[in-house]
Amino acid sequence: MSPARGPGRTRVTGADEAPPPGSSDVFVQHVRLGPDAGSEGYPYDLPVVRALRDTGGLGLDRPVTFLVGHNGSGKSTLVEALAVAVGLNAEGGSPNFRFATADAHSSLGEALVVRRGRRKPRSSFFLRAESFFNVVSEIDRLDREDGPGASVVGGYGGVPLHERSHGESFLDLFVHRFRPDGLYLLDEPEAALSPQGAMAVLARIHDLARRGAQFVIATHSPILLAVPDARILELDDGGAWQAVAYDAAMPVVLTRAFLADPARHLADLLDDG
């Protein structure tokens, strides 16, 4: 259940609200549905898409924006669609990646209208946790095709990522492939990370954001949400975006409550009788 609206929670109502004082000149400033977008059926009946329609769009005016909501709300679908709309591969990777292992992405990417900033990113990447194995396979294939003297794998730390653990390959991506002045769209990057790994990624995101990078991240991780100066947008049960403070974000509230008294929560969750 989402926390009730209160201190630390501000409803996001306007499509073209002025950016806050001191906000950076980001690469992607705003996203909305285009005039030809559908009105019913998948993906247009997802809560996240209905929220885009009801508010006229979503401002992405910070170097780091987190999207938070329940499973099934459509956060991942929105990040994937944004990746497609800015020219990235639906299964993940950089603009040069054009492989597809399944035609499973939604049509939402073609229906989005993206307002871009004045700057162009020096690099960009879409990390989709569930299909990163396929991205790694494509990196290995490109590395073999380039032949002696060239190294695609070198851009990811120099060790074939299939020879690394899942979490190590994620960290290699953040450390070696992500750079200042880049645009990075991430779908649940915490999926492969230990708590220590999530903290390392938090520090890397913060460092790159201070050096001109922009991140849009769908996540359930209370650790990642602690990135300083990030904007946390939470989709509430009524289908509206709210800008929330860290302490009011649903993953933080629920995790703290559980850790404070696991026995009570287990008694509520488990039926041993």
Give a written overview of the molecule.
It holds the Pfam family AAA_21. It is a peripheral membrane protein. The chain has 273 residues and is α/β, with parallel strands linked by helices. It has a single domain (9-269), classed as P-loop containing nucleotide triphosphate hydrolases (Rossmann fold), CATH 3.40.50.300. Helix content is 32%, strand content 17%. The chain is built from eight helices and ten strands. The chain has helices at residues 47-55, 75-85, 108-111, 132-146, 166-177, 195-210, 250-260, 262-269; strands spanning 9-11, 28-33, 58-59, 64-68, 112-116, 123-128, 182-187, 214-218, 231-235, 241-244. A seven-stranded mixed sheet has the order 1-10-9-4-8-7-6, with helices on both faces. The protein has a three-stranded antiparallel sheet with strand order 3-2-5. Strand 7 (182-187), helix 6 and strand 8 form a beta-alpha-beta unit. The chain is globular.
Quick recap:
The chain has one domain (9-269): 3-Layer(aba) Sandwich (Rossmann fold). It is 32% helix and 17% strand. It has eight helices and ten strands.
How would you summarize the topology of this molecule?
Layout: E1 9-11, E2 28-33, H1 47-55, E3 58-59, E4 64-68, H2 75-85, H3 108-111, E5 112-116, E6 123-128, H4 132-146, H5 166-177, E7 182-187, H6 195-210, E8 214-218, E9 231-235, E10 241-244, H7 250-260, H8 262-269
Parallel strand pairs: 4-8, 4-9, 6-7, 7-8
Antiparallel strand pairs: 1-10, 2-3, 2-5, 9-10
